[in-house]
Design a protein that fits this description.
233 residues, four-stranded antiparallel sheet, 8 helices, alpha/beta, 9 strands, three-stranded parallel sheet
Length: 233
């Protein structure tokens, strides 16, 4: 058996009952009390959903804007030409281009959090499918990343909009802010994220949809959230 470290013993002693269900504010306070690192940890949420994403009618995917932002600097690349390219740059895009941007990405420069494209550029972007697809960066009209309104898409990406997608086991993970955020801001982000997942309930979902929610910090334990106190869950 793996030996329990002093830090783990201390955490276990502080946590006490590991079956306890927490209100959101209570979980945030517990994670702050348990913090042992010096860096600004991310507050993360994991939701277990009653879906099997291998079936198309049980896929959960979309975008949600976190009202208090993410606390992260988001790097955005945009495929656009002419006026649309200028609009994207003015909105704060980190890199804008067409064939030149495609070649840059083919050379291995893929350090982006979001890739956006105007519809007329998808012929160029399509050649990057094998590079962007596995990284979850392929522009998609359903997610608003293929759009003529590139300026708004850039602002959304920079302003706290995040993508969510259910994994094979029916779990969705996301960072909803930094520990340095106020409880009020983290609770707003938590509510916005959970609301988006509830609204994205697919037609093929059967039985209880939101089965479990847990919250953790980057280096902290996962605390179970009382779903009875979460609207819509």
């Amino acid at each position: 058996m793996a030996k329990i470290t002093k830090k783990q013993k201390s955490l276990n002693a502080k946590l006490g009952d590991n079956m306890k269900l927490y209100a959101v504010g209570e979980a945030l306070q517990a994670l702050r009390d348990l913090k042992t690192t010096k860096f600004d940890e991310t507050i993360e949420i994991a939701m277990n959903l009653g879906v099997d994403p291998r079936h198309a009618d049980q896929m959960v995917r979309g975008m949600v804007s976190l009202p208090a932002g993410t606390g992260k600097t988001v790097k955005v690349a945009v495929f656009a030409k002419g006026d649309k390219a200028e609009e994207a740059l003015a909105a704060g895009a980190d890199k804008v281009g067409a064939e030149d941007l495609m070649e840059d990405m083919q050379a291995g420069n893929l350090d982006y959090d979001r890739v956006i494209a105007t519809p007329d550029m998808m012929g160029v972007v399509g050649r990057l499918g094998k590079l962007l697809g596995p990284k979850g960066l392929m522009p998609n009209p359903k997610l608003g990343t293929v759009t003529p309104n590139v300026a708004q898409a850039v602002k959304d990406a920079k302003g706290g909009q995040i993508e969510f997608r259910v994994e094979k086991q029916g779990i969705i993970h996301a960072g909803i802010g930094k520990m340095s955020f106020s409880d009020e801001d983290l609770q707003k982000n938590f509510s916005a994220f959970v609301d988006a997942i509830v609204k994205a309930k697919p037609s093929g979902a059967k039985g209880k949809y939101v089965q479990k929610i847990s919250m953790s910090s980057s280096m902290g334990p996962g605390l179970k959230i009382d779903t009875a106190q979460v609207a819509g869950a």
